[in-house]
Specification:
Blueprint: E1 14-18, H1 23-34, E2 38-42, H2 46-54, E3 59-61, H3 69-83, E4 88-91, H4 106-134, E5 137-142, H5 157-175, E6 180-187, E7 190-191, E8 206-207, H6 208-221, E9 225-228, H7 230-240, H8 244-255
Parallel strand pairs: 1-2, 1-4, 2-3, 4-5, 5-6, 6-9, 7-8
The protein binds NADP nicotinamide-adenine-dinucleotide phosphate.
NADP nicotinamide-adenine-dinucleotide phosphate binds at residues 19-25, 43-45, 48, 64-67, 92-96, 115, 119, 142, 144, 187, 189-190, 192-195.
Length: 269
Protein backbone atom coordinates (compact mmCIF):
# COMPACT_ATOMS: atom_id res chain seq x y z
CA UNK A 1 0.00 0.00 0.00
CA UNK A 2 1.32 3.40 -0.95
CA UNK A 3 0.45 6.20 1.46
CA UNK A 4 1.88 8.99 -0.67
CA UNK A 5 2.55 9.70 -4.34
CA UNK A 6 5.89 7.97 -5.04
CA UNK A 7 8.77 10.34 -5.68
CA UNK A 8 10.61 8.78 -8.60
CA UNK A 9 11.91 11.17 -11.21
CA UNK A 10 14.33 13.21 -9.14
CA UNK A 11 15.40 15.30 -12.12
CA UNK A 12 12.04 17.11 -11.95
CA UNK A 13 12.11 17.62 -8.18
CA UNK A 14 12.65 21.01 -6.53
CA UNK A 15 13.70 20.20 -2.98
CA UNK A 16 14.18 22.29 0.16
CA UNK A 17 16.15 20.64 2.97
CA UNK A 18 16.01 22.65 6.19
CA UNK A 19 18.81 21.46 8.45
CA UNK A 20 21.25 20.50 5.70
CA UNK A 21 24.55 21.93 6.96
CA UNK A 22 25.69 18.70 8.68
CA UNK A 23 24.69 15.11 9.40
CA UNK A 24 21.75 13.41 7.74
CA UNK A 25 20.59 16.58 5.97
CA UNK A 26 23.97 17.13 4.34
CA UNK A 27 24.12 13.47 3.23
CA UNK A 28 20.57 13.68 1.84
CA UNK A 29 21.45 16.85 -0.09
CA UNK A 30 24.34 15.04 -1.79
CA UNK A 31 22.23 11.98 -2.61
CA UNK A 32 19.39 13.99 -4.15
CA UNK A 33 21.89 16.12 -6.05
CA UNK A 34 23.45 12.95 -7.50
CA UNK A 35 19.99 11.90 -8.65
CA UNK A 36 19.53 15.18 -10.50
CA UNK A 37 17.22 17.09 -8.15
CA UNK A 38 17.48 20.83 -7.62
CA UNK A 39 18.12 21.30 -3.90
CA UNK A 40 18.08 24.39 -1.72
CA UNK A 41 20.05 23.77 1.47
CA UNK A 42 19.24 25.73 4.62
CA UNK A 43 20.43 25.92 8.23
CA UNK A 44 22.11 28.61 10.35
CA UNK A 45 25.73 27.98 9.29
CA UNK A 46 26.07 29.99 6.07
CA UNK A 47 29.71 28.96 5.57
CA UNK A 48 28.92 25.24 5.67
CA UNK A 49 25.96 25.71 3.33
CA UNK A 50 28.07 27.62 0.80
CA UNK A 51 30.70 24.89 0.86
CA UNK A 52 28.07 22.18 0.48
CA UNK A 53 26.29 23.91 -2.42
CA UNK A 54 29.61 24.51 -4.17
CA UNK A 55 30.12 20.73 -4.23
CA UNK A 56 26.69 20.07 -5.71
CA UNK A 57 25.62 20.56 -9.31
CA UNK A 58 22.35 22.46 -8.98
CA UNK A 59 22.01 23.83 -5.48
CA UNK A 60 21.06 27.02 -3.71
CA UNK A 61 22.41 27.85 -0.26
CA UNK A 62 20.10 29.92 1.91
CA UNK A 63 20.82 30.42 5.62
CA UNK A 64 17.98 30.74 8.12
CA UNK A 65 17.10 30.09 11.71
CA UNK A 66 13.89 28.04 11.99
CA UNK A 67 13.03 29.93 15.17
CA UNK A 68 12.99 33.19 13.20
CA UNK A 69 9.84 33.17 11.05
CA UNK A 70 10.98 36.07 8.87
CA UNK A 71 14.18 34.23 7.91
CA UNK A 72 12.16 31.12 7.02
CA UNK A 73 9.76 33.17 4.88
CA UNK A 74 12.64 34.95 3.20
CA UNK A 75 14.33 31.64 2.33
CA UNK A 76 11.18 30.13 0.87
CA UNK A 77 10.55 33.29 -1.16
CA UNK A 78 13.99 32.86 -2.70
CA UNK A 79 13.26 29.24 -3.64
CA UNK A 80 9.93 30.12 -5.27
CA UNK A 81 11.48 33.03 -7.17
CA UNK A 82 14.25 30.74 -8.44
CA UNK A 83 12.23 27.66 -9.31
CA UNK A 84 8.57 28.73 -9.46
CA UNK A 85 7.36 26.05 -7.03
CA UNK A 86 8.42 23.32 -4.62
CA UNK A 87 8.04 19.55 -4.80
CA UNK A 88 9.62 18.31 -1.58
CA UNK A 89 10.34 19.99 1.75
CA UNK A 90 12.37 18.02 4.30
CA UNK A 91 12.27 19.47 7.81
CA UNK A 92 15.48 18.09 9.25
CA UNK A 93 16.54 20.88 11.64
CA UNK A 94 16.74 19.58 15.17
CA UNK A 95 18.56 19.88 18.44
CA UNK A 96 18.97 17.47 21.33
CA UNK A 97 20.31 17.23 24.83
CA UNK A 98 19.74 14.48 27.33
CA UNK A 99 17.61 15.52 30.29
CA UNK A 100 16.50 13.72 33.44
CA UNK A 101 14.62 14.97 36.49
CA UNK A 102 18.00 15.63 38.11
CA UNK A 103 19.27 17.69 35.18
CA UNK A 104 16.00 19.38 34.26
CA UNK A 105 16.86 22.68 32.60
CA UNK A 106 13.98 24.89 31.49
CA UNK A 107 16.16 26.95 29.15
CA UNK A 108 17.27 23.80 27.32
CA UNK A 109 13.68 22.52 27.26
CA UNK A 110 12.50 25.72 25.63
CA UNK A 111 15.33 25.64 23.11
CA UNK A 112 14.41 22.11 22.00
CA UNK A 113 10.71 22.99 21.77
CA UNK A 114 11.60 26.15 19.82
CA UNK A 115 13.79 24.43 17.25
CA UNK A 116 12.18 21.00 16.94
CA UNK A 117 8.50 21.91 17.24
CA UNK A 118 7.98 25.66 16.85
CA UNK A 119 10.56 25.73 14.05
CA UNK A 120 8.56 23.09 12.19
CA UNK A 121 5.41 25.15 12.72
CA UNK A 122 7.20 28.19 11.25
CA UNK A 123 8.03 26.15 8.16
CA UNK A 124 4.49 24.80 7.96
CA UNK A 125 3.06 28.31 8.16
CA UNK A 126 5.39 29.38 5.37
CA UNK A 127 4.87 26.54 2.91
CA UNK A 128 1.22 25.49 3.38
CA UNK A 129 -0.38 28.21 1.22
CA UNK A 130 1.95 27.30 -1.67
CA UNK A 131 1.37 23.54 -1.32
CA UNK A 132 -2.41 24.08 -1.21
CA UNK A 133 -2.28 26.37 -4.23
CA UNK A 134 -0.11 23.90 -6.15
CA UNK A 135 -2.37 20.96 -5.23
CA UNK A 136 0.78 18.87 -4.99
CA UNK A 137 4.14 18.46 -3.31
CA UNK A 138 5.45 16.52 -0.36
CA UNK A 139 6.33 17.49 3.22
CA UNK A 140 8.66 15.16 5.12
CA UNK A 141 9.32 15.83 8.80
CA UNK A 142 12.20 14.23 10.66
CA UNK A 143 11.14 12.98 14.08
CA UNK A 144 12.80 10.11 15.96
CA UNK A 145 12.10 6.73 17.53
CA UNK A 146 12.49 8.71 20.77
CA UNK A 147 9.07 10.16 19.94
CA UNK A 148 7.29 6.79 19.98
CA UNK A 149 6.75 6.67 23.75
CA UNK A 150 8.10 8.27 26.90
CA UNK A 151 11.66 7.31 27.82
CA UNK A 152 13.77 8.26 30.84
CA UNK A 153 16.38 10.96 30.23
CA UNK A 154 14.39 12.36 27.34
CA UNK A 155 12.24 14.96 29.08
CA UNK A 156 12.60 17.59 26.35
CA UNK A 157 13.66 15.89 23.11
CA UNK A 158 11.16 12.99 23.32
CA UNK A 159 8.07 15.20 23.74
CA UNK A 160 9.08 17.43 20.80
CA UNK A 161 9.55 14.39 18.57
CA UNK A 162 6.28 12.80 19.75
CA UNK A 163 4.54 16.02 18.77
CA UNK A 164 6.03 15.84 15.28
CA UNK A 165 4.73 12.30 14.76
CA UNK A 166 1.28 13.42 15.88
CA UNK A 167 1.48 16.47 13.60
CA UNK A 168 2.53 14.36 10.62
CA UNK A 169 -0.40 11.97 11.15
CA UNK A 170 -2.86 14.87 11.31
CA UNK A 171 -1.38 16.55 8.24
CA UNK A 172 -1.36 13.33 6.26
CA UNK A 173 -5.07 12.80 6.78
CA UNK A 174 -5.90 16.35 5.73
CA UNK A 175 -3.49 16.69 2.83
CA UNK A 176 -3.74 13.29 1.14
CA UNK A 177 -7.12 14.15 -0.45
CA UNK A 178 -5.45 17.28 -1.82
CA UNK A 179 -2.72 15.21 -3.52
CA UNK A 180 -0.05 16.47 -1.09
CA UNK A 181 2.23 13.85 0.43
CA UNK A 182 3.26 13.84 4.08
CA UNK A 183 5.82 11.53 5.65
CA UNK A 184 7.53 11.25 9.00
CA UNK A 185 11.09 9.98 9.33
CA UNK A 186 11.96 8.08 12.51
CA UNK A 187 15.66 7.22 12.62
CA UNK A 188 17.37 5.08 15.23
CA UNK A 189 20.97 6.02 16.03
CA UNK A 190 22.87 7.80 13.26
CA UNK A 191 26.49 8.90 13.56
CA UNK A 192 26.27 12.72 13.28
CA UNK A 193 27.38 15.74 15.33
CA UNK A 194 24.05 15.42 17.19
CA UNK A 195 24.83 11.97 18.61
CA UNK A 196 28.59 12.40 19.03
CA UNK A 197 27.80 14.02 22.39
CA UNK A 198 26.39 10.70 23.64
CA UNK A 199 28.59 8.96 26.16
CA UNK A 200 26.82 5.60 25.95
CA UNK A 201 27.17 2.91 23.28
CA UNK A 202 24.60 3.32 20.51
CA UNK A 203 23.25 0.02 19.13
CA UNK A 204 22.73 -0.44 15.41
CA UNK A 205 24.52 2.86 14.76
CA UNK A 206 24.45 3.72 11.06
CA UNK A 207 26.17 6.39 8.99
CA UNK A 208 24.45 9.55 7.77
CA UNK A 209 24.84 8.24 4.21
CA UNK A 210 22.92 5.04 5.03
CA UNK A 211 20.24 7.11 6.78
CA UNK A 212 19.92 9.39 3.74
CA UNK A 213 19.61 6.36 1.46
CA UNK A 214 16.80 5.01 3.68
CA UNK A 215 14.98 8.34 3.40
CA UNK A 216 15.31 8.32 -0.38
CA UNK A 217 14.02 4.72 -0.51
CA UNK A 218 11.07 5.63 1.73
CA UNK A 219 10.14 8.64 -0.41
CA UNK A 220 10.42 6.59 -3.59
CA UNK A 221 8.14 3.91 -2.09
CA UNK A 222 5.51 6.41 -0.95
CA UNK A 223 5.84 5.40 2.72
CA UNK A 224 4.22 7.43 5.47
CA UNK A 225 6.59 6.39 8.24
CA UNK A 226 10.20 6.01 7.12
CA UNK A 227 11.99 4.22 9.94
CA UNK A 228 15.45 2.69 10.10
CA UNK A 229 17.54 0.69 10.74
CA UNK A 230 14.76 -1.89 10.76
CA UNK A 231 16.66 -4.33 13.02
CA UNK A 232 16.40 -1.67 15.74
CA UNK A 233 13.16 0.12 14.94
CA UNK A 234 11.02 -3.03 14.62
CA UNK A 235 11.59 -3.81 18.32
CA UNK A 236 10.83 -0.26 19.33
CA UNK A 237 7.69 -0.25 17.23
CA UNK A 238 6.57 -3.36 19.10
CA UNK A 239 7.08 -1.58 22.44
CA UNK A 240 4.92 1.24 21.09
CA UNK A 241 1.79 -0.92 20.98
CA UNK A 242 2.12 -2.46 24.44
CA UNK A 243 -0.41 -1.46 27.13
CA UNK A 244 1.10 0.71 29.88
CA UNK A 245 1.32 -2.19 32.35
CA UNK A 246 3.58 -4.13 29.96
CA UNK A 247 5.40 -1.07 28.59
CA UNK A 248 6.44 0.27 31.99
CA UNK A 249 7.43 -3.24 33.10
CA UNK A 250 9.52 -3.73 29.97
CA UNK A 251 11.28 -0.40 30.43
CA UNK A 252 11.89 -1.19 34.10
CA UNK A 253 13.37 -4.55 33.16
CA UNK A 254 15.65 -3.04 30.55
CA UNK A 255 16.92 -0.43 32.97
CA UNK A 256 17.07 -2.64 36.06
CA UNK A 257 20.39 -2.31 37.86
CA UNK A 258 21.69 0.13 35.30
CA UNK A 259 22.17 3.78 34.96
CA UNK A 260 18.88 4.87 33.33
CA UNK A 261 21.00 6.68 30.79
CA UNK A 262 21.47 3.33 29.09
CA UNK A 263 17.80 2.74 28.45
CA UNK A 264 17.70 3.90 24.89
CA UNK A 265 20.85 1.94 24.11
CA UNK A 266 19.31 -1.28 25.34
CA UNK A 267 15.82 -0.81 23.99
CA UNK A 268 16.27 -3.68 21.57
CA UNK A 269 13.88 -5.98 23.45
N1 LIG B 1 21.51 11.34 14.62
C1 LIG B 1 20.56 10.56 15.13
O1 LIG B 1 20.85 9.49 15.69
C2 LIG B 1 19.12 10.96 15.02
C3 LIG B 1 18.16 10.04 15.46
C4 LIG B 1 16.83 10.38 15.38
C5 LIG B 1 16.44 11.60 14.85
N2 LIG B 1 17.40 12.47 14.42
C6 LIG B 1 16.95 13.76 13.88
O2 LIG B 1 17.51 13.93 12.60
C7 LIG B 1 17.61 15.33 12.32
C8 LIG B 1 19.00 15.64 11.80
O3 LIG B 1 19.91 15.40 12.85
P1 LIG B 1 21.42 14.97 12.64
O4 LIG B 1 21.62 13.75 13.42
O5 LIG B 1 21.78 14.99 11.22
O6 LIG B 1 22.14 16.12 13.46
P2 LIG B 1 23.03 17.36 13.05
O7 LIG B 1 24.17 16.92 12.20
O8 LIG B 1 23.30 18.08 14.31
O9 LIG B 1 22.05 18.23 12.12
C9 LIG B 1 21.11 19.11 12.62
C10 LIG B 1 20.84 20.15 11.55
O10 LIG B 1 19.85 21.06 12.05
C11 LIG B 1 20.33 22.39 11.84
N3 LIG B 1 19.76 23.27 12.84
C12 LIG B 1 19.85 23.19 14.19
N4 LIG B 1 19.23 24.23 14.76
C13 LIG B 1 18.73 24.98 13.75
C14 LIG B 1 18.00 26.19 13.69
N5 LIG B 1 17.65 26.84 14.80
N6 LIG B 1 17.66 26.68 12.48
C15 LIG B 1 18.01 26.04 11.35
N7 LIG B 1 18.71 24.90 11.33
C16 LIG B 1 19.06 24.37 12.53
C17 LIG B 1 21.84 22.26 11.97
O11 LIG B 1 22.53 23.31 11.31
P3 LIG B 1 23.07 24.65 11.97
O12 LIG B 1 23.67 24.31 13.27
O13 LIG B 1 24.03 25.14 10.93
O14 LIG B 1 21.88 25.53 12.09
C18 LIG B 1 22.07 20.96 11.19
O15 LIG B 1 22.10 21.22 9.81
C19 LIG B 1 17.26 16.05 13.63
O16 LIG B 1 15.92 16.50 13.57
C20 LIG B 1 17.39 14.96 14.67
O17 LIG B 1 16.58 15.20 15.80
C21 LIG B 1 18.72 12.19 14.49
Amino acid sequence: MSFNPKLKDWSTQRVWIVGASTGIGEALAHQLDHRGARVMVSARSADKLDKLAANMSNALAQPLDVVDLASVQNAFKRLIEAWGGVDLIVVMAGTYSEMSVETFDLKAVRQQIDVNLNGTMNILDTILPTLLKQGGGHLSMVSSVAGYRGLPNSLAYGPTKAALINLAEALHMELKPKNIGVSVVNPGFVDTPLTRQNTFPMPFLITAEVAAQEIVNGLESGEFEIHFPKAFTRSLRFLRVLPYSLYFAAVKKITAGKNQKNLSTDAKV
